[in-house]
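Readers of this paper often ask what the protein records in our data store actually look like. Such a record has a labelled line for the sequence and another for the backbone structure tokens. The tokens are whole numbers drawn from a learned vocabulary of local backbone shapes. We quote a single record here, exactly as it is kept in our systems:
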Amino acid sequence: MTTKDDLMAGFAGESQANRKYASFSNKAAEEGFTKVATLFKAASLAEEIHARRHLQVYGIPSTVENLKAAIEGETEEFTHMYPEFVKRSQEEGNEDATRSFTYAMKAEQVHAGLYEKALSAVKSGKDLEVSKVFLCPVCGNVALESAPGACPICGVPGKKFQEITL
């Protein structure tokens, strides 16, 4: 192992802790434990700081390289990883897992296509020409310009899509 390997292992662990503690915060809040929820939220944000710092020290490549890596990762997920997960969850009769994996698989395919579009723009020296970006809060589908009437992946009404801004 090298320090670069350690940085990526730290990034992965801190990233996972960030999301896990954010979910724990939501659960504690649902159960009425607001101070515990606040503690989990603070820890979640701390883990994010750690993850981002590890990645910065590791080195973040150019936007072109980042888009290529994102396309590769998303494509791997929707062509290999999630289909295997869906198959196994179906064999085990776990409908909730099957739904979760299927939503993610379909959303990752959309993401890969959007990254391809962005890569083409960036390679020609331009930014992505889009006025608005929307996110489905249920399945993670991303839509450009306007939210659909209903999400084509999970069916949630388009009015529930969140506009994403910097």
In short: The chain has four helices and three strands. The mean pLDDT is 98. Strands lie at 133-135, 142-144, 162-164.
